[in-house]
Amino acid sequence: MKQPIYYLILFCLCSFQFELLGQLDQCKGLPPYFLKKGINPQKAYLSTSEKFLVGMALIESEQPGNPNAKIIKVIQDSSWTDKGFLGAICTDQSGNSYVLPSAKVNLLKNPLEKQNTIYKVDANSGLMSPYVQIPMDVLPGSFNPFGLLGSFYDCSTSQLIVSTVAGSSENREIGKVCKIDIKTKEITTLIDHKDIYGLALHIHQGKRILYLSSARTSKLYSLELDDRNNPIGTLKEEFSISGLGPRGDDKIRKIRFTSDGKMQLFTVLFYYNLTSPSEEQQNQMYFVYNSIKKNWKLSGIE
Amino acid sequence: MMKNIVLLYVLFSFMIILNCSSQKNRRTDGQSLLDERKREIEAVLKLNKPVLLVKQTDIKSSSEIQDIFISNSKLDKFFLESSSQKKMLNEIFSISKARPSDLPNGSAIMNMENLYRVEMYNYAMNASIIGFVDLAHRQVINIIFYKETQPDIPPHLVELAMEMAINDTAVINEYGEHKLDQKPIMAGTKTALNRTKCQRSKHLCVAPTFVKGDKALWAIVDLTDLNIAGVKWTQVGETGMAVTQRTMQNDKIMSCYCDKNNVIEKNDWTFSYSMSRSDGLVLTNVQYKKKELFRNVKLVDWHVSYSKIDGFGYSDAVGCPEFSTAAVLAVEPPYFEAIVESGDTTGFLLGQRYYSEGWPTPCNYNYHQYFEFYNDGRFRPVVGSIGRGCGNNGMYRPVTRIALSGEKNNFYEWNKNTWKQWKKEQWTLQTGKTLYQGDHQWLKIENDNKQGLVILANTGQMRDGGRGDNAYVYVTKWDSHRDEGETDLPTIGPCCNKDYQQGPEKFIEPDPEIIETSSIVLWYVAQMTNDDTKGNEYCWAESVLKNGVYVPVIYPCYSGPMFKPY
Q1: Which of A125, A78, A73, A75 is nearest to A97 (CA)?
Q2: Which positions in chain B touch A112 (Cβ < 8 Å)?
Q3: Do residues A153 and A13 make contact, with C-beta atoms less than 8 angstroms apart?
Q4: Which of A181, B115, B324, B560 is deepest in the core (most CB within 10 A)?
């Protein structure tokens, strides 16, 4: 599951620009530590899914975005490796990155009690340290080793929105979605008792819509938010990807929108268990919105 | 019994019934379409172009179109595996007039009148090959390959799937009535056939579905292996997850075995078993002739290290396929089997297999665990690896935890012609210099009545193809006031320690406790080195073509000591 963050043309997008693009995370700032580490920011990305590497790595590639391109340089700070395996990365306007833990083959490097800890990589020093811990009603266990799964940085409010399934089990759904004000670290629960995997905030037909995917089923939901990311209305089921793709039982790991307005879904095999080292069963699905029928329609699978 | 042989078997050719009863004998007689299909496959695999041609089409020139299509040299790689020169089974599912929208973007505009679309399925690769044939110029314009994609199946395969389903005894038994061909099809569907996917086997599957009241019975028919992959009931109109091989398999394991105790009384043995979240199949309260022998026996971890890269390897847990910390999953139900030695049934075994998705491709794992219960009271917990892993230089170290019954046990090791008692928690390593008494008697546990169990070392004499365990054995004290692995244990050791530090030592160091006349736990860590040398394969697996489709060939390595009462 590749989680690269690219720093090519993302530096100074104003609020007008990201509202225009629709997806509200298009404001990633260049972290000053990139330059201090002697890496070409035009060809650099952060990754938490490099083979044989634990934690996060700063990669300089001849062609970022191409997994087969030659890797020029790999940099790992010791504070990036001692947190165990990591997952989703979000970066704010100043270049601070917010990184989630992610249990993979086993839990030796990922203690259960840290599964709801968000780590912050300081834009200046490049050091990674615990940022906030989302409260857990029940500690993850052998019945579900996961905690935080999805994250999205909203540039318009400077809020980080995350999903966690910590403590959920086969017969107990206690996941939640929270927003974190990155200035005050205040945590507010947006959705309770729902296991959500990926999420993305998008301006859709003039409304702020938070799209969310279920970690339990193959469904995609939406929730309208106000300009401070408070929910308006209730969770609405948009569609299911059940039966689609080579496996037909994928869950939606990540939701993003392309510049031409397509919804891009990164789908993966997920049943709340750990995975083998070679398991990269994932696909990308594209959906387009039919404004007449007011629904999303599949336009392609890669 | 698993002899020292190369086992060839078809992966996932098992059936699943979603009640928790044991598997039923199936009968597949009286199926004319199935017999005919097998004959067709056998015949076509003798041809240079192993392609079953389309059976029904409205296109008049279909023979000519197919001939042009399969004669194209670009298709040769779908007919023959270059390394083995073995044939791959293909079938043309349909021929239709091509439409402009069928052509790939950027294709030159041409006369569509004589252009035909041919859809071929490759059973070995589970892939679709779409070709466009220009009949006027007798040439193939374009060929597109879609991996893990299956075209719509043709009518004769629909009929075949229906015949297989309605004649299958397990399907009939599950439905509870005969004459399934007269039963209503699933409401809201145009045919009685639903689409499904066999994700784990990567086979072509469809699901004839039969309605009974407000429920629908899905029979998943595997058209690659030509068998029934399983059946599952759903509520009519249900809009949950799609019914597929994986969801069906997972549902069965989760509902019937995960954390659910199954009590067995068989021969003179009594015990319970259940599937754990990370410790494999767990036996509890094992009794022989009403005498308690083991409180709990389970497979805690698999540590796999590779010698070419220092510190490279994986530490895996086995267990439930969902909501677990297992990476290598139980997808088939546990099974019972007779132990036959020299023609006599001498006991039975309870077995369980674990797969990572994608096995036997590289960096995927397959483990096998079974417990042998002999009529004379002997007991053997066996674990084996069936490869394939990430390299040919791997060392497998399974960690088995065996909690013995009894509060007043003493532990002994055969040493210098005498049984020497272990006073404190400690470990030992089986080496080439280890001495045994009699029939490989290495260790023993004895209660205050001077009765107990002798542990026979595995030096490769167990008749399972094993080459000896070179095992680490640890003994720790059991204390009801603390949990040292009685409940589900997360991975307790790293992949790549080459010494005694495999995890159990955590319960010994730094201050070993006295274990005299106490309740004890024995930890057993076998060490097996894999090998891919031709003729000497061990802990290894390969995929080979058989009857036009890939099947795994396995070279297991089994380990485990024998417990013998005295």
Answers
A1: A125
A2: 490
A3: no
A4: B324
- Tens digit of pLDDT for each residue in B95-118? 999 988 777 766 665 678 889 999
Indicate if B127 and B200 belong to the same structural domain: no
Residue numbers of B between 342 and 361 with CB closer than 8 Å to A: 356-358, 361
Q: Tell whether B80 is covered by a domain.
A: yes
**What phi, psi does B201 have (nearest 5°)?**
-85, -15
Q: Which of 109-168 (A) contact B at CB < 8 A?
A: 112, 141-145
Distance between CA atoms of residues A299 and B418, nearest Å: 76
Residues A207, A213: Cα–Cα separation, whole Å:
19
Tokens of A277: 């080292």
Strands (E), chain A: 5-6, 44-47, 57-61, 71-75, 86-91, 97-101, 117-121, 128-133, 148-154, 159-164, 176-181, 187-191, 196-204, 207-214, 219-225, 231-240, 251-257, 263-268, 282-290, 295-301
Query: For residue B235, is it within any domain?
Result: yes
Q: What is the mean pLDDT of chain B?
A: 89
* Low-confidence residues in chain A, pLDDT < 70: 1-21, 277-280
DSSP B154: P
Give the per-residue pLDDT at B23. 46
Give chain B's domain count. 3
- Nearest partner of A273 among B258, B193, B511, B181, judged by Cα: B258
At the top level of CATH, which class does the domain A5-301 belong to? mainly beta
- The encoded tokens of residue B550 equal 């890939």
Q: Identify the pLDDT of residue A10.
A: 41
Q: B525 is written with which tokens?
A: 């860590």
Q: Note the helical H segments in chain A.
A: 15-21, 32-36, 78-81
For residue B219, the enclosing domain spans: 168-243
Contact B277 A247 (CB under 8 A): no
User: Considering CB atoms only, which of B199, B327, B363 is closest to A274?
Assistant: B327
pLDDT at B65: 96
B302 plus B403 within the same structural domain: yes
- Using only C-alpha atoms, chain A has a radius of gyration, in whole angstroms, of 18
CB atoms within 10 A of CB B381: 24
Residue pair B222/B201 in contact by the 8 Å Cβ criterion: yes
Question: Strand pairing of A117-121 and A128-133?
Answer: antiparallel
Q: What pLDDT sits at residue A67?
A: 76
pLDDT (0 to 100) of residue B112: 80
Q: Do A274 and B317 touch (CB under 8 A)?
A: yes
| Residues counted in chain B | 566
Tokens of B131: 């070709």
pLDDT over 70 at B55, yes or no: yes
**How many angstroms separate the CA atoms of A93 and A69, rounded?**
28
In degrees and rounded to multiples of 5, residue B66 shows phi and psi of: -65, -40
Chain A CB contacts of B316 under 8 Å are 105-106, 276
Expressed in percent and rounded to 5, the helix, strand and coil fractions of chain B are: 15, 40, 45
Residue B14 domain-assigned (yes or no): no
- Whole-angstrom distance, CA of residue B30 vs CA of residue B460: 46
- On the question of pLDDT at B17 being above 70, the answer is no
Residue B155 lies in a domain: no
* Confidence class for position B314, pLDDT limits 50, 70, 90: confident
Given a cut of 70, whether residue B170 has pLDDT beyond it is yes
